[in-house]
Write a structure and sequence with these properties.
- The protein is an alpha+beta fold.
- It has eight helices and seven strands.
- It has a seven-stranded mixed beta sheet with strand order 2-1-7-6-5-4-3.
- A hairpin with a 2-residue loop joins strand 5 and strand 6.
- Helix 3 packs across helix 7.
- It is globular, with a radius of gyration of 22 Å.
- The N and C termini lie far apart (81 Å).
Length: 188
């Protein structure tokens, strides 16, 4: 083999080796970090979307009503993986009645949409993936919500009261408070 061919061959092997090492390191880094979880194989046998799961649970009737008012149910039925941090009816009942009523008004629809998007992560997130961490999850609305799973799981100011309710396209976590932005004070 000529010197030129040998050098080209050796260079090609080096590039391939470096590429393989880079892939191995990135896979190891991904495995070493407790980030969003993949949907389990069980999801393939589940037919209900995250919206269907919420609609079928009596604890989430207020949330489902607001999702329908905002016209967001289609996005929660879509394929792909999402996580919904679902405030219970009790969480909505803890809001001042005038705030909840104002959110139902057509004039406040953009704010309602923003609030609901604060409750959806664009990837599957299980409680096991965040256990022991203090981190943030970026929501569909673009907000970074604090997660503290050092003692139970808190999402913002809310506590997860039931975790990891699996749907065909993600997970639902029941929470005990509504994740409100500062702008809500403007409608009270």
């Amino acid at each position: 083999m000529s010197v030129k061919r040998t050098a080209l061959f050796a260079g090609s092997l080096l590039v391939l080796s470096l590429g393989a090492a880079k892939i191995a390191l990135s896979e190891r880094a991904a495995a070493d970090t407790a980030g969003p979880a993949d949907l389990s194989a069980d999801a393939a046998s589940i037919e209900n979307s995250v919206f269907d799961v919420a609609s079928g649970d009596a604890r989430f009737t207020t949330l489902v009503e607001l999702i329908q008012l905002a016209g967001l149910e289609t996005g929660l039925d879509a394929p792909g993986a999402v996580t919904v941090f679902a405030p219970t009816n009790d969480a909505f009942a803890a809001l001042p009645a005038e705030t909840l009523n104002a959110l139902k008004e057509e004039a406040n629809r953009p704010l309602l949409v923003d609030i609901l998007k604060r409750h959806v992560a664009p990837q599957p997130v299980t409680s096991a993936a965040v256990t022991g961490l203090e981190t943030q999850i970026v929501t569909v609305g673009g907000d970074a919500i604090d997660v503290d799973a050092t003692d139970g799981v808190k999402i913002g100011e809310a506590t997860v009261v039931e975790a990891d309710i699996q749907a065909a396209n993600g997970f639902v976590h029941a929470i005990d408070a509504v994740l409100l932005p500062a702008a809500v004070g403007a409608i009270e």
